[in-house]
UniProtKB/TrEMBL annotation:
Cell wall-binding repeat ranges, renumbered to this chain: 337-356, 357-377
One Pfam short name: Cadherin-like
Signal sequence interval, chain numbering: none
Domain Cadherin-like beta-sandwich-like: 167-261
Protein name listed in UniProt: Cadherin-like beta-sandwich-like domain-containing protein
Keyword presence, Repeat: yes
Keyword annotations from UniProtKB, A to Z: Repeat
Native source species: Clostridium saccharoperbutylacetonicum N1-4(HMT)
Length: 396
């Protein structure tokens, strides 16, 4: 009998015996598919504010296409003015999840629910493990089932005022813009019969090479092929048009045009040296200073206006300021800051209400720091028998 025929008969007999003994065994040798669930079980990953609201996640750093559900390992993007966020993972045992605030080999994984402080662009790594990893560092690679990355661009105290990226010019088809690259708000008046305006905005590049820049005019991306121009439709009255420029280092800046079609009756931003006291319930700029007019048209003084504070002269505060015996820090944008802030080269910390902290404090990373009576972080010293390292953290 042919040897191949003998082998086929023998294999058939073996398969028949196995099917009798164990009918539940799947012996489909032609199908290499694994029947066990190969997914990590994640049904969604959300980036949340401390109040519980979810932030939008995007598929790339153009921030155009939102991702409704994050359940495939990969890299995602977000941007926020919040200084602290949380990560929420659905569908898996929370004991098997660790969150890493950065990709340094010594970064320790934390459990869900802890706050993550943001500065510049922060890479948050979410790892799903096949079992509870216990205490783990980023450099530990055992039992990782999957990994997700969220690159969060912080729009807060990393003030775009300090980013080294500008526009070279702004042009309009109607009206006039007296452009300066360090002036970020402009008013343009056009006749009532003008229903659209062409805006040009070219990046400021020393080499005249623009491949590394991204420009958006009223939300639409423009490039050299468009001559960095875009037509924008105008409604009657005020039309607020933002021009966004970003380089390949994630430095960014936003310029704003207030285009008034017809009679200008409600301007909230002024380029003039004198405030218009008829502007009620809005910010105005006078002699380079921002002031707030209340509903009666009076300049507000010595008072909070949302997250801003106006001083005794009615000017919006910037820098450190003592308000009712408590110290606050306001950035160049005037917004009250929280968390770690570097002021004149020295680190200070401000709590959730923006109040400068002094004495011992425990940060969200679990480390202890000491803030002197002037709020300055102590480092390379010993306080009360506790040694503080160069980064200010207590070292055992």
């Amino acid at each position: 009998m042919n040897k191949n025929i003998k082998k086929i008969i023998s294999l058939a007999l073996i398969l028949g015996i196995l099917n009798v003994l164990s009918p539940a065994i799947n012996l489909n040798f032609m199908d290499t598919k694994a029947y066990a669930n190969t997914t990590d079980g994640v049904t969604n990953i959300r980036l949340k504010a401390s109040g519980g609201n979810s932030l939008s996640l995007y598929s790339d750093n153009d921030y155009d296409d939102t991702v409704s559900e994050v359940k495939e390992p990969g890299t995602y993007y977000a941007k926020t003015s919040l200084s602290k966020v949380q990560v929420d993972v659905s569908g898996v045992d929370s004991d098997n999840v660790r969150i890493f605030d950065g990709t340094s080999s010594s970064t320790r994984g934390t459990r869900e629910g802890g706050g993550i402080s943001l500065s510049d662009t922060t890479t948050i790594v979410v790892r799903i493990y096949s079992q509870n990893p216990g205490a783990v560092k980023y450099s530990d690679k055992d039992n990782i089932a999957s990994e997700y990355r969220i690159k969060v661009k912080y729009l807060g105290s990393s003030d775009s005022e300090n980013d080294n990226v500008y526009l070279k010019d702004i042009t309009v088809s109607y009206g006039d813009v007296n452009f300066s690259k360090t002036t970020y708000n402009y008013n343009v008046n056009v006749p009532d019969d003008i229903n659209e305006i062409t805006i040009g905005a070219r990046p400021d590049s020393d080499s005249n090479e623009y491949d590394n820049y991204k420009v958006k005019i009223d939300g639409t991306k423009v490039d050299e092929d468009d001559k960095y121009k875009e037509k924008v439709s105008l409604n009657k009255g005020n039309n607020k048009i933002e021009i966004y420029v970003e380089d390949d280092s994630d430095n960014s800046r936003t310029y704003t045009l207030n285009v008034f079609r017809g009679t200008n009756t409600g301007i909230a931003i002024s380029n003039n040296n004198q405030a218009d006291n008829n502007i009620k319930g809005s910010w105005v700029q006078t002699n380079g200073k921002w002031q707030y007019n209340d509903e009666s048209g009076n300049i507000v003084k010595n008072k909070w206006v949302q997250n801003y504070y106006v001083d005794a002269e009615g000017n919006r505060a910037t820098d450190l300021l003592n308000v009712d015996g408590l110290w606050y820090y306001f950035g160049q944008d005037g917004i009250k800051k929280i968390g770690w802030q570097k002021i004149n080269g020295i680190w200070h910390h401000f709590d959730e209400q923006g109040i400068m902290q002094i004495g011992w404090m425990k940060d969200i990373d679990g480390k202890y720091y000491y803030l002197n009576s002037n709020g300055a972080m102590a480092s390379n010293t010993t306080i009360g028998g506790y040694k503080l390292g160069a980064d200010g953290a207590w070292t055992e």
